[in-house]
Amino acid sequence: MNPARHVSRFRLLKNLGIAAIALCAAPAWSACTPPVVDGHPVHPFRVDDGVAREVGSRLEWQRCSVGQHFDDGKCRGAADKLDWNDAQKAASAAGHGWRLPTQSELSTLVLSYCSAPATDTAVFPETPATWFWTSATDGAQGAWFVDFEAAGGNGATLRTSTAAVRLVRQGE
Q: Among candidates 31, 73, 77, which has minimal Cα distance to 48?
């Protein structure tokens, strides 16, 4: 697969989707929290300071993007935009089992009824509405991302491109 051609098709579809969504949903874009069904959130997490534990999968997520720090219920600072190799280095430097998520893991954080960012902002505050790297590669020079701007599209791009990073690890 040619990463540049795939990204071009993705951007076209993304832009068309944004135009359609903007006509009916723009006022709700500032924050998004999942609905409650039978007394339980649709996308349940247990949060403890800077870590969100996903009920069921036992995955633990950093609530803030790399470059931010968790303080008083918020993610302070700006999220770093890293190329894929630097994203891998940031995961290694974090230690304690933190790593880049797989494409399917990261996609579980996307809520299709949210946009800009397409995630639960109560659990993941100040999430930038941008691409986030996954651990998945695409050929010798590409890697996959998940888009947190518009309902979580995904695609592949060159590893020299920059994207935000959210780290995950297997919980106990």
A: 73
Alpha helices in 40-145 (DSSP H): 84-94, 103-107
Burial class of residue 14 (count of CB atoms within 10 Å of its CB; 0-12, 13-18, 19+): middle
CB-based burial, 133-152: b 16+ in 10 Å, e otherwise:
bbbbebeeebbbbbbbbbbb
- In whole angstroms, give the CA distance from residue 50 to residue 94: 13
Q: 92 by DSSP, 3-state: which?
A: helix
Among residues 84, 106, 113, which one has the least CA distance to residue 167? 106
Q: Where are the alpha helices (DSSP H) in the chain?
A: 3-25, 84-94, 103-107
Pairing label, strands 154-158, 74-76: unpaired
Note the pTM of the prediction, 2 decimals.
0.78
pLDDT digits (tens, 9 = 90+) for 121-147: 999 999 999 999 999 999 999 999 999
In terms of DSSP H, where are the helices of 100-149? 103-107
Contact 164, 81 (CB under 8 A): yes
